[in-house]
Amino acid sequence: MLMIRNLLLAFVTAVLTQNAWAGLLMKPTADPDLVYDGNILEGTYSDTVSDPATFLGFEAGQRVANPAQITAAIMAWQGQSDRLKVIEYAQTHEGRPLFAVFISSPTNLARLDDIEAQINKLADARTLDNTEANAIIESLPAVAWMAYSIHGNETSGADAALASIYHLIASTDDDTASMLDNMIVVIDPMMNPDGRARFAKSLEQYRGTAPNVDDQSLLHTGDWPFGRTNHYLFDLNRDFFLLTQPETQGRVALINSWRPQLIIDGHEMGSQSTFLMGPPREPLNANIDNDLQKWARVFSEEQGAAFDDRAWRYFTGEWFENWYPGYSNYAEYRGSMHILYEQSRMAEDGVRRPEGTVQTYMESVHHQFVSTMANLASLQTHSQAMYRDYWDGRKYNVSAKSEFANRSYVFLANENHGRMNALVDRLEAQGIELFTNKSPIKVDSAITQLGETKKQFEIPAGSLIVPNRQPDAPLVAAILEFDADVKKSVLIEERQRTLRDGSSLMYDTTAWNFSMMFGLPSVTVPTHLSKGLSPWQSHTPMQSVDEAAIAWAVSGEDDRSVAFAARLMEQGVKVRVIDKATALSDQALPRGTVFVTAMDNPKSENLVELISAEAKMLNIDLVSVGSGYGAGDLPDWGGAHFRLLTQPQIAILSQQGFSSYDVGSSWWAIDTHLGIRHSQIDTAYLSRADLRRYNTIVMPNGYRPMNSAETSALKDWVKQGGTLIAHDNSAAQIARDNGIGQVRSIGDVLDSAQDYDIALQRERLSTSDQLDMAAVSAHNVSTVVDYPWEQGAKALSADELKRREAWQKRFMPSGAMVAGQVDILHWMSFGSPEMLPLLYENQPALMTKGSQQAVVRVGVMTKDPSAREAQAINWSTVPEGHALTVRMSGLIWPEAASRIANSAYVTRERVGKGQVILFSGQPNFRGSTRGVGRIWLNALVYGAGLGTSAKVAL
């Protein structure tokens, strides 16, 4: 009897539990605020095309459709309608497909290749006259590219895209059929499937028994790293010309091949806002054709009218500017018109608004849907006129009278073939015409990255030359010009805002040109270079593999040499690096050359095979060395300059408290540039983790202060021989009194500022080749000795320095390029030029003295005969006869330039048996700051062997 009773009890418990869970998954529908009285899909539809609910299990826009559901619908519709053609243009890092859905009449779809060819013919005014162009224009349908949800947690756009596809392919009304007879609509329904999948999963995890309209809840926000970004936590809406991610690479290739007249980009913004549409406000990039702004106003008025008809609130411009060319408006520089949608975010359950009402998710989707249809209707009306404006612009771009006509961008010949190949890949992907010179070219003048005009400049043979006078001249200028123009009125308002409340007109970084981002030496020549040029051809690697050699080497000038070393070490190969240039067997071996000897690897039976395989995989030059004798005073292979490396065992601190962008770009850089194993560690477990497994730890930009236990764990680990690499705000945490080491932020050392100035002068004098031989040879003691603190510049008091510090901090940039002076004798500077462009934001200004090394400092000192006296710049002194250059590109106020002048951007300090390496900024910013990124790779791979106490193997 007891057994039966227990079985019945278990049965009842199970039923009740099952019902309880069923109730948890059900949502009450009694709340009238949550019922949307609008109808997204209005009209009549064909019975042969399944409606979205068939694939979703709910009405379009009622809830968030996940990537699998959207994909299922698109693939099914492809077999149900003759109005669409689906192209998979890329796959994400996680293997999810990205689709471009071409929608038009069957007749137009049958001739897509011809239409695409005619569009591209119209794009090059060098091959057409007006009569031919007009004939093409009259024959072309309108072309629209409608893209949604590039940020994965901005979901309503993709759900509107699904409704839009269905409406266009299934509607039986005459207006839709007429539109498709005269238009090709390309819908990119979900631009970031990986991020959307992450956010959709969080919706499942945080959904409760009743709808939640509180926009602060996890249901609405998600959790770290949130759904905004892709797999590697990149913001894809900043990647359109940088092209680091597969989603962008595939998307841009297809956009560029079709050159659509209209591009829309459906986003979401703060949940308590309404709906933002174009046109943007200032600052606008001066390279955007004025005709596009004219059409933006026309489309905006007609889109606003569609909202007015439904009594929906909206606004234009206000916070939206188009200065940085890496947004989705990238195509404007190629002649397309761009419209941004920013819908207030509602997640799934809707959000209670300030006025007390609740806006539902379906209403948000409806806003995006109506905007889509309004813009398509506008394009149908204005397409022919827009094509004619486009043709006028294409003629202007290649005209000898255009603003682009007499300007060429030159990347000076260098041996960093890996970085040059990466640059060329990005430029060619955008259809930019590239050339080179087989012989030196002399030009009357050239402008350097420091803003100097060099007369009678010689362009070395083998340089990469990009004339601005070519079909896509605005794009060439936008991404290669050293400085982007900005109106004085914009700067006035920006400064007023800075002083009033610290706000800004600048939505993003104000410097981005490829030559500085990539850290490549470059000049601008104010003439159209065309003579003596041939099409660019990338370097063909020379790989000499002599099995009888004593060693094999890869030049340290090439960034890929670091990966070569790291990958071989991961396979158990002993590797050396040369820290002073030499020549062996008539082979020039610069600093940083990776050197593998047979003697170091006596047990490796397939050593030559491993070396050869990695060189081929990396497509890098490889030389064989038959003798270790360096002629004259050059280093020989048995001396101290051939330094044995230690295999890096890397961990990245991650999760809550860290910038997902910096975590992601660090993670991506290791996977992309090195391809070696590493771990991410949740910092919540740092104080009890076994850190002995790692010899190198990366601490990305962080916002959560470390507690004493975490700091103690890291400090003990460093003292035992670890290499700690910290970025930005995390570097500031390390550089404090209770941090690790003696590097400090500028605001903490102003009471002893002169000590830091003396250390700076000592550093500079240590590289000077000036010497007074008479004074050195004199037998009598000289009564006149030059001391760094007696140069004539009046030192500022600590109180004055503190007042300036408080004032100057207000003016820190949102992203500008500053000149960096590199210590070219330090092992971390392998492969780096003496001057390196640095992207500088509102980040810590680091200070060093004594044994703390400044591997890179802010500011490059140049000779200036007009400077007849030494000058004080805050705490530091600029000697007589010299000037200090800080700003290279972008907006950096004089106050900020003075604040960061001579501060350290990269520091290295010995702590116990280990070392601390601090980067003032983020060395892998958007995967594209390749100059300082190389220094970071050197620190990561070589640090464990070159900067810590060597361990003797027993």
What's a concise summary of this model?
34% of the residues lie in helices and 20% in strands. With 954 residues, the chain is α+β, with helices and mostly antiparallel strands.
CATH superfamily of the domain at 77-396: Zn peptidases
Number of helices: 27
Largest sheet composition: 10 strands, mixed
The coarse overall form would be globular
Category from helices, strands and their pairing: alpha+beta
The tally of strands reads 42
Estimated helix fraction: 25-40%
**Backbone CA Rg:** 31 Å
CATH topology of the domain at 77-396: Aminopeptidase
Distance between the termini: 72 Å
CATH architecture of the domain at 77-396: 3-Layer(aba) Sandwich
The unreliable regions are 1-28
Mean pLDDT: 93
CATH class of the domain at 77-396: Alpha Beta
| Beta-strand content | 15-25%
Key features of this structure:
disordered N terminus; alpha+beta; Aminopeptidase; about 950 residues; eight-stranded mixed beta sheet; 42 strands; ten-stranded mixed beta sheet
Topology, pairings included?
Layout: H1 2-25, H2 53-56, H3 67-80, E1 84-91, E2 97-103, H4 106-110, H5 112-122, H6 130-139, E3 142-148, H7 156-170, H8 174-181, E4 183-188, H9 193-206, H10 218-221, H11 246-258, E5 262-269, E6 275-277, E7 281-284, H12 290-309, E8 315-316, E9 321-322, E10 337-344, E11 351-352, E12 358-359, H13 361-397, E13 408-411, H14 417-429, E14 435-437, E15 441-448, E16 453-459, E17 464-467, H15 473-480, H16 488-500, H17 514-517, E18 522-525, E19 533-535, E20 551-554, H18 560-570, E21 576-578, E22 582-584, E23 587-589, E24 594-597, H19 607-618, E25 623-625, E26 642-644, E27 650-654, H20 660-674, E28 678-682, E29 696-699, H21 708-719, E30 723-727, H22 728-734, E31 744-745, H23 753-765, H24 773-777, H25 798-808, E32 816-822, E33 835-840, E34 846-847, E35 853-858, E36 860-863, E37 871-873, E38 876-878, E39 882-885, E40 887-889, H26 894-900, E41 904-911, E42 914-919, H27 930-946
Helix pairs in contact: 3-7, 6-13, 7-13, 12-13, 18-19, 18-27, 25-26
